[in-house]
Design a protein that fits this description.
Length: 281
């Protein structure tokens, strides 16, 4: 069994160094591949140093910004093929935590398990300031389908691990609908629709930083575009879920949360009449 850690980087600064170091320290990892998506901060300089310091690290770059989804698809192509290869898509501002066997514990030897998802720790930020201490985020408080519908305790992208061969059936959606975010939700729904099997692993394996930069996907400036992406995803999810069983209670909760957030963001945007049109897909 081999593990590739794949890191899309855009203006992550010193956090990408932490991400790379945490991946490099993991047992079972034989390659850490980073694609810089045309950053304009000091990410490129840090990546060059990392490539010299860590033999496992390979660095490539886009000359023009292509977005996280295209970058992830290119990272798959850059990874070493193999039936027993697992892929961890580590966001450049996240870290692998717990211990040096964290990723190994997140893989499965059973041939019928295609994707795993682990628990997380979350640091929340507002305007660059950390709001509180790390928060433990268990991703198995509900079944995965109920969690997706209710929009709570869902694993982030970094908390997912895939057999490489999964990507003969699914891909990261590069379309306009997901430019605002919801990337982990998109790939999870695609995997479920494709009939791939998912399993929870009881490892607190990821440190996820939410909103550390206003320009981040989870940052303040991106809230309305992210809601447009969520609306598109949610419509697809609810339609599919109603074919799978009785998830109406969780669906109602997810819709209620969306409506509340949508009303808040639209109200804030009303001070700028062009705000909504500027982010509509």
């Amino acid at each position: 069994m081999s593990i590739s850690v794949l890191i899309p980087c855009f203006n992550a600064g010193e956090k990408v160094w932490r991400a790379i170091a945490s991946a490099n320290a993991q047992n079972g990892v034989d390659e850490v591949i980073v694609i810089d998506d045309a950053s304009w901060d000091d990410s490129k300089a840090l990546l060059a140093i990392a490539a010299d310091k860590f033999p496992k690290v390979k660095v490539a770059a886009h000359l023009k910004n292509k977005g996280a989804q295209k970058t992830r698809n290119n990272l798959i192509l850059a990874s070493t093929p193999g039936r027993d290869r697992w892929l961890c898509f580590l966001d450049a501002d996240d870290e692998i935590i717990s211990h040096e066997n964290s990723l190994l514990l997140r893989t499965k030897t059973e041939a019928d398990i295609d994707i795993t998802y682990c628990d997380m720790s979350i640091e929340r930020y507002e305007s660059g300031n950390r709001l509180r201490d790390r928060e433990y985020w268990p991703t198995n408080r509900r079944s995965l389908l109920e969690a997706l519908a209710a929009f709570e305790f869902v694993p982030s992208t970094s908390a997912l691990m895939f057999r490489r061969e999964c990507f003969t059936k699914v891909c990261w959606d590069e379309g306009e609908a997901y430019k605002g975010g919801m990337h982990c939700f998109q790939i999870l729904l695609a995997a479920l629709k494709a009939g791939l099997s998912l399993d929870h692993v009881s490892v607190e394996g990821i440190l996820y930083r939410e909103g550390w930069s206003e320009d981040q996907i989870s940052g303040k400036k991106n809230r309305l575009p992210r809601l447009f992406a969520r609306k598109h995803w949610q419509q697809q999810l609810f339609e599919w879920l109603r074919e799978q069983g009785d998830y109406e209670e969780a669906i109602a909760l997810g819709q209620k949360k969306f409506d509340f957030e949508w009303e808040q963001e639209v109200s804030l945007a009303q001070s700028n009449p062009t705000a909504i049109n500027a982010v509509m897909p």
